[in-house]
Design brief:
single chain, 369 residues, TIM Barrel, 9-stranded mixed sheet, two-stranded antiparallel ribbon, 14 helices, 41% helix, binds zinc ion
Length: 369
């Protein structure tokens, strides 16, 4: 069985509304896409539809403030990249729902929310996903006829509680969610986000009302962002520090990161903090090409019930500063015949064609071939 890699990137400015669309989205995405094209592989772009709708609502004001219309340059880029074969999927940060642009800055909701927390009724959640999907699908299919949006990633990875959100995805033929990071816990929002109980050593599983609980009859597949459990100090890579604290990142965002971490001052507590086990995502903007390859190669073989071997990697256009590192990573992947880069569109086509469940002998057979 060939190991498939999805190179996914979240396409958005900073969550608090700061940052320039051309600098954080348009330019880095174009550079990444060109590098992908050089190696003949698709980039999977998670399009933040909630933020984009804000840019549409305030197009006039933004044009006056910035000298250009961000929604328009985004539309042009989406069409161009879709025409060139890149993969687009849906991403929404509910904290941008109803965001207002006043006095030259955005006011968004202060806390990260899940789609479930935003709406009372299932009908509202269904409408929400349906309308956001339609906005993106219209743009993409104008350039790549017949292309559908079939995967979703929750803003700030907050897919819990998820009953309404997963039902809304299923009702709108979105068959993949890619928000889980095995082992992640996060207290940032109203609800504790807890992905510690997600299935282990699985590439994907079907879900119905909780992204962490397998339900064989669920209509949506969870395909997690691949991660490895390491000590927190392993996360302090030069690449990560450069990405998070680059001169481009707004000062208040940097302060937020440090506050959120809650770094203790007492030396004993500091040691405990640094040695605490945490999941490290396969983030190509936070890890070196060699570390990524090590983690990809050391992923255990898929479980017997996994329909395919797929690892989802993540990055953020706003953290893309180093073309050479990204290109070096694609070079290393290209040199390894057991790896291939695919978009979610291809993953979903393959899942649809695969029998359920795939037997162990089947997977061993294709690995040997
Ligand atoms: Zn995001």
């Amino acid at each position: 069985m060939q190991r498939n890699l999805v190179i996914s990137v979240d396409y958005e400015i900073y969550g608090n509304g700061t940052g320039d669309v051309r600098q954080l989205m348009i330019e880095p995405t174009e550079r990444m896409a060109r590098i992908c094209e050089k190696y003949g592989v698709p980039l999977t772009i998670f399009f933040e539809a909630e933020e984009y709708l804000g840019f549409c609502r305030y197009a006039q004001e933004l044009k006056q403030s910035l000298g250009y219309d961000p929604a328009r340059v985004i539309r042009e880029q989406v069409r161009s990249l879709a025409r060139r074969g890149h993969d687009f999927q849906l991403h929404t940060h509910p904290k941008w729902f109803g965001a207002a642009f006043e006095g030259g800055r955005w006011s968004v909701r202060p806390e990260e929310l899940s789609a479930d927390e935003l709406f009372e009724s299932q009908a509202q959640a269904d409408d929400y996903i349906s309308s956001r999907k339609a906005v993106l699908e219209e743009m993409v299919s104008a350039a790549a006829p017949g292309r559908k949006i079939r995967a979703y990633r929750a803003g700030a990875l907050r897919a819990q509680p998820g009953g309404k959100m997963l039902a809304a995805l299923a009702a709108n033929n979105i068959v993949v969610d890619s928000s889980v990071v095995l082992g992640l816990q996060d207290y940032k929002g109203r609800h504790l986000l807890d992905y510690r109980r997600a299935p282990r050593n699985r590439r994907l599983w079907r879900v119905r009302d909780d992204v962490c609980r397998e339900d064989a009859d669920g209509a949506v597949w969870e395909i997690p962002i691949h991660s490895v459990m390491r000590r927190r100090f392993h996360q302090l890579t030069p690449e990560r520090l450069k990405a998070k604290f680059s001169s481009r990142a707004p000062k208040d965002r940097k302060r937020e990161i440090v506050q959120h971490l809650g770094i203790p001052k007492n030396p004993f507590q500091l040691a405990r903090f640094l040695f605490a086990p945490i999941p490290i995502k396969l983030d190509f903007h936070n890890l070196s090409p060699n570390a990524l390859m090590r983690y990809i190669r050391s992923a255990p073989p898929p479980a017997a019930d996994d329909a395919m071997d797929v690892l989802v990697l993540i990055g953020h256009t706003k953290e893309h500063t180093d073309d050479r590192a990204f290109e070096h990573f694609l070079q290393l992947v290209g040199q390894d015949s057991s790896l291939q880069v695919v978009g979610f569109d291809a993953v979903i086509d393959e899942l649809r064609n695969s029998p359920r469940p795939v037997s162990r002998s089947n997977s061993l057979c294709s690995t040997a071939g």
